[in-house]
Structure to design on (189 residues):
């Protein structure tokens, strides 16, 4: 589990994958993402087949459900890291917050925590993200987290069965470390 100032990021396992499935049923989550169109049993099987723990060199999809530390117990959304077999030193981050909890900084807090986890625990060298150009909220989350725009990929994804352009963002470990040092120096001054 990962904790932030306000959130608990709980790893998705076979035991709580049903909660993730319920979150993925929120209709507006599919406006900007190509989420898997699977039934509950299919998602449970997929999660059960994933690696148990995120660690350096481990390949696969790792997801965390978002919950407040105190109070509200329902899932606020999810974040994920996907490490491919072709490049174990980088990952793709994904995230979504259900409508009722948007505009509260939850995505920014969760992404920052997962970036920290990826670079520290996972020893990743690069984290990438993709979003639709018109998803201004997601673009703002990535900017706040230190991601740089890399390119726009024409027809780089499919959303709701249609090819769409996507923006690619990258955060490199060295840039993240430099930003952390700068933040520490600013708070010590």
């Amino acid at each position: 589990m990962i904790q932030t100032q306000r959130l608990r990021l709980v790893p998705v396992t076979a035991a709580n994958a049903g909660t993730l499935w319920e979150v993925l049923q929120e209709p507006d989550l599919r406006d900007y993402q190509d989420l898997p169109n699977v039934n509950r049993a299919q998602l449970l099987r997929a999660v059960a087949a994933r690696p148990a723990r995120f660690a350096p060199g481990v390949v696969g999809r790792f997801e965390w459900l978002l919950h407040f530390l105190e109070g509200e117990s329902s899932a606020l959304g999810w974040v994920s890291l996907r490490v491919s077999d072709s490049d174990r030193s980088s990952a793709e981050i994904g995230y979504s917050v259900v409508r009722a909890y948007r505009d509260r900084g939850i995505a920014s807090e969760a992404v920052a925590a997962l970036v920290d986890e990826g670079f520290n625990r996972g020893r990743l060298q690069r984290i990438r993200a993709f979003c639709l150009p018109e998803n201004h909220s997601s673009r703002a989350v990535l900017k706040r987290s230190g991601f740089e725009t890399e390119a726009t990929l024409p027809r780089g994804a499919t959303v709701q069965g249609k090819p769409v352009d996507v923006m690619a963002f990258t955060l490199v470990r060295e840039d993240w470390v430099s930003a952390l040092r700068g933040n520490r120096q600013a708070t010590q001054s």
User: Anything to note?
Assistant: The chain has one domain: 2-188. Strands lie at 2-3, 7-11, 60-68, 77-84, 87-97, 126-131, 148-159, 162-172.
